[in-house]
Design brief:
Elements: E1 3-6, E2 9-14, E3 17-22, H1 28-41, E4 51-56, H2 62-76, E5 80-82, E6 90-94, E7 101-109, E8 118-121, E9 124-127, E10 136-139, E11 143-149, E12 152-155, E13 165-170, E14 174-177, E15 180-182, E16 196-201, E17 204-209, H3 210-220
Parallel strand pairs: 3-4, 4-5, 7-9, 8-10, 9-11, 10-12, 11-13, 12-14
Antiparallel strand pairs: 1-2, 2-3, 6-7, 13-16, 14-15, 16-17
Length: 225
């Protein structure tokens, strides 16, 4: 289990991600500086992997949570998902904009989903592992996978085409969002060096690097990712 301390910042590895304890004795700007320094000292430890984090020890405003989330994403070059509250039933996934906070129940799966297994849930599904060929993940909301998707993934299964699928690499035989169906590109998975996102644009499913999509979304002022 990881445990690191630095000037009011405490990192603690948990079974579903990283708990970051924030000291009350720093200004928010000083807190951000300390967090950035702590992440830089960690080197490549967190680089390139989607991370579920939970902030504790300090009451934060929604805008402050968003700023810390964006800071961590910049440093680790991967998507960050903020878990709140700390129970296993309800969670919030903060994506790139304050106006997109997907609230509601989320199912956490703490292992790789193997061939023949099917995980289905009405809300969001977060997999801390891979989705192997022959496995299926079906969510009424979004799907977030810390590793690879090589099986079938269906987000927005109740017809919600605003849902998204985010993974370390999307190599799924079939990707579904709402009523739309697509297949992941045939690129060699070894060439994928950053997380990917699948979302609906117009009348088709687009699969592209997560950070590229997030950057475009910010510039356009859109809030879907």
């Amino acid at each position: 289990m990881i445990q690191m301390r630095e000037n009011g910042i405490n990192f603690k590895g948990t079974r579903d991600g990283l708990q970051i304890s924030l000291g009350d004795d720093l200004t928010f700007d000083s807190l951000k500086d300390a967090l950035r320094k702590r992440l830089q000292q960690a080197g490549d430890f967190f680089k390139g992997t989607g991370l579920i984090v939970q902030f504790t020890g300090r009451l934060l405003e929604p805008d402050e949570i968003s700023q810390l989330k964006n800071l961590i994403e910049e440093e680790i070059e991967a998507p960050v998902f903020v878990k709140d509250p700390p129970d296993d039933i309800t969670s919030k996934i903060f994506l790139e904009n304050d106006d997109l906070i997907i609230e509601g129940p989320a199912k956490f799966v703490y292992n790789t989903i193997r061939s023949g297994q099917r995980i289905a849930y009405d809300g969001n599904i977060i997999v801390v592992g891979d989705v192997n060929p022959g496995a299926e993940v079906v969510a009424g909301g979004n799907i977030v996978v810390a590793g690879y998707i090589r099986g079938m993934a269906h987000a927005g299964s109740d017809g919600n085409d605003k849902a998204a699928i985010i993974a370390g690499s999307i190599r799924a035989l079939q990707v579904r969002i709402g009523h739309l169906i697509a297949r992941a590109p045939d690129n060699d998975a070894a060439l994928i060096s950053q997380p990917e996102i699948a979302y609906v644009s117009g009348s088709e499913i687009v699969i592209e690097p997560y950070l590229k999509a997030a950057s475009i979304s910010r510039r356009r002022g859109e809030g879907y990712i």
